[in-house]
Amino acid sequence: MKSLTINHLSKTYFDPYAAKHVTAVQDVSLDVPEGEFVAIVGPSGCGKTTILNMIAGFLPASGGDIIVDSRKVSGPGPDRGVVFQSHALFPWKTVLENVAFGPKMRGVGLKEREEIARDYLALAGLSHAAERYPNELSGGMQQRVGVVRALANEPAVLLMDEPFASVDAQTRMTLQEELTRIWQARRPTILFITHDVPEAVFLANRVVVLSKGRVLEEVEIDLPRPRSWDAMMDDERFKTLSARVLQLVRAA
Ligand SMILES: Nc1ncnc2c1ncn2[C@@H]1O[C@H](COP(=O)(O)OP(=O)(O)O)[C@@H](O)[C@H]1O
Ligand SMILES: [Mg+2]
After folding, report:
1. Number of folded domains in the chain?
2. 195 lines ligand 1 (CB under 6 A)
3. Which of 7, 52, 133, 179 registers the highest number of CB atoms within 10 A of its CB?
4. Which helix (H) or strand (E) holds 220?
5. If you measure from the C-alpha of residue 133 to the centroid of ligand 1, how many angstroms do you get, rounded to a whole number?
6. Which atom of ligand 1 is nearest to 210's Cα?
7. Do 165 and 74 have their domain in common?
8. φ, ψ for residue 71 (rounded to 5)?
9. What are the pLDDT digits (tens) for 148-190?
């Protein structure tokens, strides 16, 4: 099953400056069923990145467990694709080579991995950029390539940590619309982390509000798809849900 389950996850850091332990994540349980799009939203410092890094296997948990694709997570692995705020593309590789890199690491032959890469690039409307190098692309396009690269690896779960936070507002809206379209077309399992409430509500099927390392509440987002910002901005249900989540985040 390409699903993610977190049971009673916690993380305690040692803060050398205060010379004491700080609990960043406390007893977080969460389920992202196969093909679902779940967003975690919460103010800066509430533990979002810590959770993502534990799921990615970059950071050991202090307690609880993480199950991806029916297996317990004990370190990084290709079953989890990660997209960060900064794209981290290989500057010496073309867009096509960047996107084909994951399949290459999995031992997929040249012809097949280029087919996979071209397929995902086409899906994201990036075919024209296949032979270009990252530094020839705008920031927004680099970030799109980063998303496509993670998808092309066909991970069980896609983990996204504020992937659109550093692009301008208009580009961000386009990227959000693209991501929902791609999600609808391919139905990857996504856990998306953001401090941006409208972004979380626009993208997800369910929004988990995090407060001081704990789950405060989960809100079902029963908005129709496909979703576009043009339609959303006049949608009463979108406004109500956003206001509800915003209220929770502000109380957090
Ligand atoms: N390596 C670390 N050592 C000590 N404390 C940390 C470390 N990383 C994060 N923290 C603390 O853990 C809390 C959660 O941080 P983080 O997960 O980055 O939150 P978010 O991504 O929601 O902004 C914060 O109080 C932060 O200061
Ligand atoms: Mg963070």
Report:
1. 2
2. no
3. 179
4. strand 214-220
5. 34
6. 22
7. yes
8. -120, 145
9. 999 999 999 999 999 999 899 999 999 999 999 999 999 999 9
